[in-house]
UniProtKB/TrEMBL annotation:
Its EC number is 1.1.1.22. This is UDP-glucose 6-dehydrogenase. It comes from Flagellimonas okinawensis. It catalyses: UDP-alpha-D-glucose + 2 NAD(+) + H2O = UDP-alpha-D-glucuronate + 2 NADH + 3 H(+). It holds the Pfam family UDPG_MGDP_dh_C. The lineage of its organism: Bacteria, Pseudomonadati, Bacteroidota, Flavobacteriia, Flavobacteriales.
């Protein structure tokens, strides 16, 4: 098929590239000319494992094209994906200005029948708005061209997006027209070699809702577990054991019940907020979803509180080695990362920070921690330790999993680890004489 993907952010670029990999001809569009020029050369703006070689391969095969002009790329296009950003508006709702701008441009320029797909995470009712916007532009032009608007939310995890796209757990398609649903089924059939059962079709509004509910449910599991961790600590239980105890019940499962420093990233915080807003706009006060958010805000600072309770409110004359800045491993993304909040909390009290992250240090230096004084960045984890009082682990990158604890002990002023991701073996650290603080366990 001939596909156009509008928006070369994370979702658009991964989706476009994976569709090209499956033999479609895909043109990715973005208003950012500089980005498009770079993409044409195979230079990609994000870090995502496996993406760059796939982009380069499909550029060479001429199955992946880039352009900054949408209007030239709608003729003979079978499916146009809207994958532009939906930033959080000031009131917490998703801002649809880019999505509707693209819909307008499609209506102004389309010449042949088209399926328009909402790929961006958009609130319930957006497909209707996209449909109306296109209809009104076609009416202005005095044209009647057949088109359908489909909701096809993405379920990609940063750091594992290629796998998620190429081998999906499920693909959700919301379509109010059978022929549009059939086209989507044909487009996705190469991704399901054994059975198409995991392509789930439904009405448009239910598909739009599914995306938010999936993320809100996962965020709920995390906040629930973080709250349980805090209670475990108070009563003297070990949340790591409790996690294994409950996860073994297949109805509960092991995934997304790891306590930590709270969920971050561009999806959970934004989508939980937007779902709450949707509920409120419809006259419902969502108690549980609000609590999920509140628990997460508190959780982000649990590690900072532990540091303060050991060293006191005044942290001047203290230096902390921070291992990990990104909101999770496998990405350079620092949006809503607990590290931002924890570092600011410590620096506010006079602490100096020695930071290292395998991928996110540029993001930290140039954006998220740009205005924060007192941070020195190092090129390796061990270099952060010299003259530091303690090491604080905030992202569970693989290279932090089994470090040389003798080296850590030797270098730190006082051998102490604060673990915001419960990665280490307490018994081992106790034997080595390293003071170990973790989430959800009293020392
Ligand atoms: C999430 C969803 O997992 C994807 O399915 C979805 O498509 C995506 O949002 C999106 O809406 O685009 P992502 O934000 O990339 O993906 O990251 P996750 O791997 O889900 O992690 C989210 C956060 O939860 C991280 O901060 C992670 O540290 C935290 N987390 C995860 C925990 O604290 N505990 C856990 O047990 C699991």
């Amino acid at each position: 098929m001939n596909l156009t993907v509008i928006g070369t952010g994370y979702v658009g670029l991964v989706s476009g590239t994976c569709f090209a990999e499956m033999g479609n001809t895909v043109t990715c569009i973005d208003v950012d000319k500089n980005k498009i020029e770079n993409l044409k050369k195979g230079i990609i703006p994000i870090y995502e494992p496996g993406l760059e070689p796939m982009v380069k391969r499909n550029i060479e095969n001429k199955t992946l094209l880039f352009s900054d002009v949408l209007k030239d790329n709608l003729e003979n296009c079978d499916v146009a994906f809207i994958a532009v950003g939906t930033p959080m508006g000031e009131d917490g709702s998703a801002d649809l200005k880019y999505v509707l701008q693209v819909a307008k441009e499609i209506g102004e320029n389309m010449t042949t029948p088209l399926i328009v797909v909402d790929k961006s995470t958009v609130p319930v009712g957006t497909a209707d708005k996209v449909k109306e916007t296109i209809a009104s532009e076609l009416e202005k032009r005095g044209l009647e061209i057949e088109y359908h608007v489909v909701s096809n939310p993405e379920f990609l995890k940063e750091g594992d997006a290629i796998n998620d796209f190429m081998k999906p757990d499920r693909v959700v398609v919301g379509a109010d027209d059978d022929s549009a649903a059939d086209t989507m089924r044909r487009l996705y059939s190469p991704f399901f070699r054994s059975s198409m059962d995991r392509l789930i079709t439904m009405d448009v509004k239910s598909a739009e809702m599914t995306k938010y509910v999936a993320n809100a449910m996962l965020a709920t599991k995390i906040s629930f577990m973080n709250e349980i961790a805090n209670i475990c600590e108070l009563v003297g239980a070990d949340v790591n054991k409790v996690r294994i105890g409950i996860g073994s019940d297949s109805r509960i499962g092991y995934s997304f019940i790891y306590p930590g420093s709270g969920y971050g990233g561009s999806c959970f915080p934004k989508d939980v907020k937007a779902l709450k807003k949707t509920a409120e706009q419809n006259g419902y006060t969502p108690k549980l979803i609000t609590a999920v958010e509140d628990v997460n805000d508190i959780q982000k600072l649990v590690i900072a509180k532990k540091v303060i309770s050991k060293y006191g409110e005044d942290l001047s004359n203290h230096t902390f080695a921070i291992w990990g800045l990104s909101f999770k491993p496998g990405t350079d993304d620092m949006r809503e990362a607990p590290a931002i909040y924890i570092i600011k909390e410590l620096v506010k009290r006079g602490a100096k920070i020695n930071a290292y992250d395998p991928k996110a240090m540029d993001e930290a230096k140039h954006f998220y921690l740009k205005d924060v004084d007192g941070i020195t960045y190092f090129n390796s984890k061990y270099e952060t330790l010299a003259k530091s009082n303690a090491m604080i682990l905030l992202t569970e990158w693989k290279e932090f999993r089994a470090p040389d604890f003798h080296e850590i002990k030797k270098q730190l002023k006082e051998p102490t680890i604060f673990d915001g991701r419960n990665q280490y073996n307490e018994t081992l650290l106790n034997e080595l004489g390293i003071e170990y603080h973790q989430i959800g366990k009293k020392r």
